[in-house]
Amino acid sequence: TFFRPLFFTKIVPASVSRLPDTVRRASLVSDTDSTMATSQWWVEWFFGDLRFCDEADAVADVVTYIAVQNIAHMMALMSANMGVVDRLVFKYAMKNEFKFAAFALTNKAKHYLSAITNQEGTAKPKPELEMKGVILRSSNIPPEIMSGFRKVAMDCLLTVKDGGKIVLKDILTHVAEIERKIKASISSGDSTYLKTGQLKDKAGYTKPES
């Protein structure tokens, strides 16, 4: 009669932000990273190994759906506890999320590649390449080079998605061909892979010889 109404009330006071400390029974929401890991672990548990096929997709989709519904429920519960009226408890929502059929990290933080197959539970007609990170999306790179990079990246992701193996020699050969093409272009006087710059008069530099 004392603890339940005052310390375990479902109606949190407006001054809840000024409480010195609280004890939660469970976390309110989940980060997408942990949701991704949960889907992966369920596939491994169900099949005995991590695989990429329609059946594995179905398991991951069900787990993702359950996670999304649970997150929506927890957010609505949090909204209700803050005093939000019933008709608006689902107004607070998380941003749109994707399902990555294959995911590739780089050695730089927040730079990665992925193949998007679903958005908010809706399957895409064909996988789309997602590139995160300013370096991967740099506009300074010639369009032809960037186009080639995107194709190789997508080919690698789809190879993994389909359960295949990436052949390193093929990728290195492709990179070498690009290097030879750039070298030949510059040697012939072509400006395709060059960019313009400005040279000041010698007097405009503090240390001209540097």
List keywords for this structure.
210 residues; alpha+beta; 5 helices; 13% strand
The largest sheet has its strands arranged as: 1-2-3
- Rounded to an integer in angstroms, the radius of gyration calculated over CA atoms is 26 Å
Structural class: alpha+beta
Distance between the termini: 81 Å
Strand content: 5-15%
Number of strands: 3
Contiguous low-pLDDT stretches (5 residues minimum) are none
Quaternary status? single chain
Please give the largest β-sheet: 3 strands, antiparallel
Outline, from the CA principal axes?
Answer: flat
Detailed description of the structure:
The protein is of the alpha+beta class. It is about 40% helix and about 15% strand. It has five helices and three strands, in the order αααβββαα. The chain has a three-stranded antiparallel beta sheet with strand order 1-2-3. Helix 2 runs antiparallel to helix 3. The radius of gyration is 26 Å and the shape is flat.
